[in-house]
Amino acid sequence: MRRLLIAFSAISSALIFAACSNGAGTTPNLPTSTAGSKLERSLRHIPTPPHPPPIRHKVTGADRARALAGGWTPVQGVPSFPNGPQTEELLTDGGVLIFDVCASNVYKLSPDQNGNYATGSWTQLASLPSGYAPLYFASAVLPDGKLIVNGGEYNFCNGAETTLGAIYDPVANTWASVSPPSGWSEIGDAQSVVLNNGTYMIGNCCTSTQAQLNESNMTWTQVGSGKEDPNSEEGWTLLKNGNVLSADVLAQPKAEYFSPTAIAWEPAGSTPDTLVTGEEIGPQTLRPDGTVWVAGATGFSAIYNSKTGGWTDGPTFPVINGSQVDVADGPSSLLPSGKVLIAGSPGLYQTPASFYLYNGSTLKAIPGPPNEMNDSSYNIRLLLLPNGQVLEADGSLDVEVYTPRGRTDYSSRPRITSVPTTLTHGTTYTLKGRLLNGVSQDNMYGDDVQQATNYPLVRITNGSTGHVFYCRTHDHSFMGVNDRKKKVTTMFDVPSSIETGAGTLQVVTNGIASAPVSVTVQ
Known about the structure:
It is a single chain. By secondary structure, the protein is mainly β. The chain is built from 2 helices and 43 strands. Strands 34, 35, 36, 38, 39, 40, 41, 42 and 43 form a 9-stranded mixed beta sheet that branches. The longest helix has 19 residues. 54% of the residues are buried.
């Protein structure tokens, strides 16, 4: 009964908010369920709004002081994004590519000479191909270091479920258009994943079909028989064994996994409680112990044990001021400590946002960034940076960096087994090691956003100046997670602009650095 009451509270909050909201960007009135519809549930689906919620709270000095005391620092020099910075992707040279909301503009944030992103430098990159300005899309950094983007629920903020796509070459700073899989009339707010062998796979937003990319000739192969329901609104989590877990949305409370070996979907049990409201669900975060924490849009959460295949209850989000907090679309990041940072908010697409840390058993509320009163979970993006901090963007020009407290989980530390110790600037080298892909994709959201960072970065620190330089990595031999025995290789390019002399080299994955190796750069 307790769980039924909480679920009713979440639904009631969404209905009340919807009935009372009339401003631009607020939740529209929720449609009534129709007999015979595939959506015979408490709430039918309404599209995620294409804009952040309207600003109703003026950010004060007290808000900024609270956030600063809680570990949040504003990023300096943010360019005047025409629409606002939102989805972030970590490139393999340590820079962060940031998309402008519903626009073709793309920017890059690079760390300063001390490796600090809050005082880093901004550069405008090449724009997306003409006619393509997606919002809520599939994306991934590929093993060769390129970034691919597919689909979009919106294009230029117009509802589209577009099939457009593009791939970014960070060396040439160019985008090339990507054709959709044959016969697909929609991609939309698709989910995606890079499999253990480096193959990129996307889901069709509106069917139960998936497709895998052969990057060498940019062709697609459709895969994935046996899917219980359409891919709509689901997230994909890469497991240690290479399978991909998905908590079903349309077939809730069922779950299933994609087996790359069988090239098919298999049952993965059922969640203990309903996690879906309005066809939305929260992020699925794989933790170092092999459990996947799934945050729900109902206030409930669930834990999947990837070793046993069983589900158990997770903690319930709190009720604040009479409204149930949930994660109906929203971000999470696995911190270097093994805790999960997550943003929630009440009902569907409502304000204010609130932030929490999950330690594997309980939730702890923490201060959020200054703008949290104007935010909802859906418009927030979280990206773990190589220095262990988290970059937060919400569509406003107040981009923030969060510095977590707590000790680093060094059991998740990558290990270097082989690397040259004399390096020449402007030259490419091979590095070998274990756990170079970390224990998790780390940054999760679901179908609207993918920001996985389970690939190695190489960082060189000059011994005399202490200045930090990132080497672009590429051609990773493996993209699986939490495989502590697998020998992995990656290539890295020593920048031509690097300072010469003695220093140290480290591999950094998901904000955790390896033990340093002494090197000399010439």
